[in-house]
Design brief:
- This protein is α+β, with helices and mostly antiparallel strands.
- It has two domains: about 300 residues, Rossmann fold; about 120 residues, Jelly Rolls (Sandwich).
- The protein is built from 15 helices and 19 strands.
- An eight-stranded mixed β-sheet has the order 1-2-4-3-5-6-7-8, with helices on both faces. A six-stranded antiparallel β-sheet has the order 9-10-11-18-13-16.
């Protein structure tokens, strides 16, 4: 299961010395303790020009944004808070619902006399940033979300089922006692398992963040961020009933982690979504691939003038007129399995999205692809499993909303029974298909 999640969750490489200092902000930055919404938030501020508000996640603090702050400070005012109760913000024991933390952000902007901002989030920062964008669309010029789902949005319930996400439910007094004095051990688990190459999250950065998370009340605040997820899901579903996000959204995923699925998730909640996949990176984009990640965000912020990011969500009628292919790259190549290319090209380098229409009583024998792929069952009944040979015993039965991954070079199979299925798949091309048993490969005359 570990390799499966690493393909789901969770370019240019900086030198080790540069990475070791990536949490140090430029000397021209100042810090303020801003009283807002019943708490005090530690905030880093610097630069000049339109505001960019950066929201960190778990395992980091606002220090993670130092490389992006250094790039943007020449023409943007950079605002990088520590989340409620975390980092150097005031110790807190309540108020961790993301709709409430969104008001922490609003108060920060009020205190700095900032009307609107581009908002950038990572991990739990995605969730707070999304809540802010929903509550304050007039103050959110654009939104960047990086490599983590948003509670209640898209395939959230399926994401929760993955056993490697046990930390979503890990909390409470006894759990905190288990971790007390072992904060570095607990945090290493995240930095190691959700990285493409754990060494890129350097010892200097690990020691820096472990020291901060070891301070009184900090791990409690971290656990409370996760404990609020159920309420966050309820809040987000209710908010979505009032309409979808209309501002430009950039959804960024690491190719060894959420990849193009980040954009897929956000298209459940936003109309104007652009996707980006950072090569050779896991979940820790700013630590693993800082230059590529910074360049991607910089390019997006430069392109968010009105009218420059057109509507990219396809309507049902638009999908209906797209070309069909029965033998496309990265498919089973079985006659009768219909492929619709929604975006990109599976045969070429770069992100792509395809939709497979699989008739009833169709068997796709065990095979591999060279790229990491994620998939969501749209309709019907899909029997999917991992291993060198297809079997009922090894398969899981997935209905609409069923979410799974196809890690690169991992053997997997699928079949339908008396119900056809439609499956949405995203990946980072070029893709291909190699059957475990060459005899299973469809012939040209099939």
């Amino acid at each position: 299961m570990k390799q499966i999640l690493l393909a789901m969750v969770a370019c240019v490489v900086m030198s080790g010395d540069a990475l070791a200092e990536s949490f140090v902000f430029p000397k021209s930055f100042r810090t303020e303790a801003i009283r807002t919404n019943g708490t005090t938030i530690h905030v880093r501020i610097g630069g000049k020009g339109p505001a960019v508000l950066m929201v960190h996640g778990y395992g980091d603090t606002g220090d993670m944004w130092a490389p992006l702050a250094e790039e943007l400070m020449a023409d943007h005012t950079v605002i990088a808070p520590d989340l409620r109760g975390m980092g150097l913000s005031a110790v807190e024991t309540e108020g961790f619902a993301k709709v409430n933390q969104a008001e922490d952000l609003a108060g920060i902007l009020d205190a700095l006399k900032v009307g609107e901002a581009d908002v950038v989030g990572h991990d739990i920062g995605n969730m707070v940033a999304y809540a802010f964008a929903k509550a304050h669309p007039d103050r959110t010029k654009s939104l960047v979300v990086m490599d983590a789902p948003v509670p209640g949005i898209g395939p959230w319930e399926e994401v929760l089922k993955n056993p490697l996400l046990w930390h979503f439910r890990f909390g409470g007094r006894d759990m905190e006692r288990l971790v007390e004095g072992r904060e570095r051990v607990y945090l290493d688990r995240f930095w190691n398992e959700f990285s493409a190459k754990p060494s890129r999250f350097t010892e200097a950065a690990r020691a820096h963040y472990a020291e901060l998370y070891s301070k009184p009340g900090r791990m409690h605040a971290g656990f409370q961020q996760f404990a609020a997820f159920d309420q966050d899901a309820v809040d987000n579903r209710a908010a979505l009933e009032s309409g979808r996000l209309q501002m430009p959204v950039l959804a960024v995923g690491g190719d060894h982690s959420f990849g193009p699925t980040m954009a897929f998730v956000m298209r459940f909640a936003a109309d104007n979504v652009r996707q980006a996949v950072i090569a050779d990176s896991g979940h820790w984009l700013m630590e693993e691939q800082p230059k590529a990640t910074v360049a991607t965000i910089r390019a997006f912020l430069a392109s968010t003038a009105p009218g420059e990011l057109p509507q990219v969500r396809l309507t049902a009628d638009e999908v209906a007129v797209l070309g069909r292919d029965e033998a496309g790259a990265g498919t089973s190549k079985l006659k009768g399995v219909e492929m619709i290319v929604l975006s990109g090209d599976p045969k070429e380098a770069g992100p792509y999205a395809i939709e497979l229409h699989v008739p009833a009583n169709t068997k796709i024998a065990s095979h591999t692809h060279r790229d990491n792929r994620t998939a969501l069952v749209v309709s019907g009944e899909w029997h999917f499993g991992y291993g060198p040979k297809a079997s009922d015993k090894a398969a899981s039965v997935l209905g609409p909303g069923g979410f799974y991954t196809e890690p690169a070079n991992v053997e997997h199979f699928a079949f339908t029974k008396d119900k056809p299925a439609v499956v949405f798949i995203t990946g980072l091309g070029p893709s291909d298909t190699h059957y475990v048993d060459a005899a299973d490969a469809p012939s040209e005359n099939q």
